[in-house]
Each structure stands twice: as C-alpha cells, then as structure tokens.
Amino acid sequence: MKTLIVSVVTPDGPVMEDSYEMVSLKAENGELGILPGHIPLVAPLTIGAVRLKGPEQTNRLAVNGGFVEVRPDKVTILAQSAEKPSDIDVERARKAKERAERRLQTKQDDIDFRRAEHALRRAINRLDVIENS
Ligand code: ATP
C-alpha cells in the first residue's frame, strides 16, 4: 500500500509527522479524502476532525481552521490549533461547551453570537474526537 507523509503544524509548533495511507479532513467547501498521488492543491480548513488511516488503525486529530497543502507524496496541515486525543483536556472542553451554550442563550450582538458558535463547535469537535478514538 502506498503512503503519504502527513505533517501537522500550529502556531505552538509541530504536532506530528508520520506516514499514512489516507487522510480525510474537513475543508471549508466539504470533506476531502486524500490518497497518495493526489493532485496538488491548497484549501482552507474548518473546525473538524482529521482522520489519518494507517495500516492497522485510524488516528484522529481535532483541528480548528487553517490550511491544507496537498502534494502527491505529502499533506501539510497548518492549523490554528490541532490536538491529538491524548492531548485533549476533556474537562476543559466540557466547560468551554457549557460556557458557549450559556452565551448562545443570552441575547447579544452578531459578533459575540458568532464567536460563541465557533467556541461551541471547537468544544464539540474536541469531545467528538475523544469519543471516536
Ligand atoms: P478554551 O475556551 O478552553 O480556551 P478554545 O476553543 O477557545 O478553548 P482555542 O482558541 O481553540 O481554545 O485554542 C487555544 C489553545 O488551547 C490551543 O493551543 C489549543 O490547542 C488549546 N486547547 C484549547 N482547548 C483545549 C482542550 N480542551 N484540551 C487541550 N488543549 C486545548
């Protein structure tokens, strides 16, 4: 089975680099499945899980925004934030989810509402990644 190198970098530094058979991620205009030999492209990412399929298991990362650069032999993810399940603090994510839900229930301007919506999506994404790992 052919593989491609996947490298994930955030403003805090590198998160991981390894070889995988397939990468699935959530670009702004839809889910993207990348196999070795994929045509080169750059796409903006949204809040979502990155699924990394290896020969024995599939690893997941919780990714929040940024860009993916695809080359035939390498996928580079430059994300605002990216966490492996083992690095996700569940309690923190639960609290962030509750906080965002509370904010969404109170009346506020559009910007604050959108900010709370994004915070809610980030928290749910982190909790989903943990649950599916
Ligand atoms: P919080 O309100 O808990 O800070 P957030 O969604 O606003 O959550 P981000 O702005 O997405 O946080 O991320 C800021 C930094 O904190 C990033 O480095 C991110 O990886 C880290 N981070 C955020 N939430 C968690 C979590 N639950 N577990 C581990 N790291 C987290």
Summarize model confidence as the mean pLDDT: 96
Count of spatially separate domains: 2
Query: How many DSSP helices?
Result: 2
Helix-and-strand structural type:
alpha+beta
Bound molecules: adenosine-5'-triphosphate
The arrangement of helices and strands along the chain is: EEEEEEEEEEHH
Bin the strand percentage: 35-45%
CATH superfamily of the largest domain: F0F1 ATP synthase delta/epsilon subunit, N-terminal
Structure notes:
The protein is of the alpha+beta class and 133 residues long. It has 2 domains: 4-84, F0F1 ATP synthase delta/epsilon subunit, N-terminal (ATP Synthase, domain 1, Sandwich); 86-132, Single alpha-helices involved in coiled-coils or other helix-helix interfaces. It contains 2 helices and 10 strands, in the order ββββββββββαα. It has helices at 90-105, 110-131; strands spanning 4-10, 13-20, 22-27, 30-34, 41-44, 48-53, 58-64, 67-71, 74-78, 81-83. The protein has a 5-stranded mixed β-sheet, with no helix packed on it. It has a 5-stranded antiparallel β-sheet with strand order 4-3-6-7-10, with helices on one face. β6 (48-53) and β7 (58-64) form a beta hairpin. The longest helix has 22 residues, at 110-131. It is elongated, with a radius of gyration of 16 Å. The mean pLDDT is 96. Residues 12, 64, 81, 83, 87-89, 92-93, 96, 119, 122, 126 line the site of adenosine-5'-triphosphate (ATP).
